[in-house]
Design brief:
Layout: E1 2-7, E2 10-12, E3 18-26, E4 31-39, E5 46-51, E6 57-59, E7 67-72, E8 77-82, E9 91-99, E10 107-108, E11 112-116
Parallel strand pairs: 2-11
Antiparallel strand pairs: 1-3, 3-8, 4-5, 4-9, 5-6, 7-8, 9-10, 9-11
Length: 118
Amino acid sequence: QVQLVESGGGLVQPGGSLRLSCAVRGDANAINTMAWYRQAPRKEREWVALITRSGYSNMEDSVEGRFSISRDNAKNTAYLQLNGLRRKDTAVYYCAATSSRTGLYDYWGQGTQVTVSS
């Protein structure tokens, strides 16, 4: 059984920063790639970033250069550093992980709210 627990969301002014964390509870060997998605009000959920177990990462174009993803396998935790936040970054941010068995994003966290507002 695997659970993903996000933390670090909150209210921040435009231009500000936040660091989101995603902790893996349970069998960490059951997951492979970890990723972040977000869902803004009245919009579809969209992919933001991913990082593999070996450290390869990729970012969505609109956040490239402002956000960064990292992972500490010893702590079974992934991070999303959000810099230069804009109002349009306001969303619920979800952590997800692929199953080592299926290769699909079978594991999802409960989400953490990020609100960018002055």
